[in-house]
Amino acid sequence: MKRFLPFLIFLSCATTEEKEEEVMVREAKPITVSEIKVVEKTLPNGLHIIAAKKDKLPIFHMEIVIKAGSVLDPEGKEGLANLVGSLVDEGTKTKNSTQIAEYLESLGANFEVSVGKTQTTITARSLTSDADNLLDIVSEIIISPTFPQKEFQREKSRQIASIKNDLSNPNYVTSIKLDALIYEGTPLAHPTDGYVESIEKITREDVVNFHKNYWLPNLSYIVVVSDLEPEEAIGKVEKYFSGWQRKDASLPDIPQISAKKKVEIFHMDGINQAYIRLAFPVNITRNSPDYNKLRVANYILGGSGFSSRILKKIRVEKGYAYSAYSYVMPNIVWKNGKYPSIFIAGLQTRVETSEDATNTLIELIKEAKEKGFTQEELDAAKGFYNGYIARLSETYSQVASLLSTRYLYGLPNMFWIKDIEEIRNLSLEDINGAAKKYIDVENFVLLIVTDTTKVKIKNLKI
Asked: What are phi and psi of 261, to 5 degrees?
């Protein structure tokens, strides 16, 4: 019923799809997409509601986003935010965990909690005819969880066991090690699910206080996409969430990420692969005029699957890896502050090819910065984006994600259409200029996770 993520990339930038899709060059035609009607309202308790109508199915899809991620974990109790998220539906003032599960099942409803670095997202969905029942139980879960001691102990044990198990997974280790490198010195550096020793120190009182201090309407917004008129959907949400009591919250500052070269080769026993990641902060925000320029430059470099330079060279020509990629993770928004975006490139290869594969990756990134791209590559990228728009807002969850991104970054309505129109008008000078301006070949972090007894990496071209 629930899904918990060790970290969450919560921005609808379509980087995964861009990375996996093959480019198909299409004739540029005018985009004909009906504008989505969006209505917004802020309640007296500070809760902001965004509603949109989608005429397709009788579905009521809602996402509650609370500014209560792992960045708020106290030092020494990392994983607290994630533990709170995993416990909210284990008991309320009127229902125990079994009754909650059975009630949601009787509605045929979906309910998920995902805890990320800066926010917790609760996603719920039912038939529109059951919207009131869904809102009733979801509001109860969010506003008045009881965190029963028995469930608290059980969930702590489960999370400790999960972390111990994950530490044998090189993909997980690579992910948390990269965060520790790129976010060093900030509360973003630790894993969202915490450490074994930090979870052990968390008390039920910590969980109760975290919820009381940060699960607040004035730190939250709700997005609803349904077949109802937006005003009616907002009225339903207001009915069940207007009683959520606001409270002043003191959010910590996040230190700026420092850009400096760091290399770490981390040993893991018994693995036959090398897990390689290169990352650096990018001084660009999601609503920057340069964002789409860099987005397209990255698409050509490593975001477009088999047509990207990185995959062509590393997989097709050299046969080093099944997957090799790059993407730009848009900036974190926190206390209205603008923090850098993050560029990440990576691959997984055999231990014996790890050094040359790493050097090849670095060379391709340097070449993109120094020499830029070709008109043919730009035309192919434009063709992809011209067709991609038709798939961007098909589902209720996709529309909700787009509206969340729009609100978070202060983007215009239907910004995804405007993005495509902007991309159509990009020149080769635009994307090459963005590559030269934003790609950093001097101040990156490089992480290689492998069995160092099987390979000696001595000649990295850094």
From this structure: -70, 130
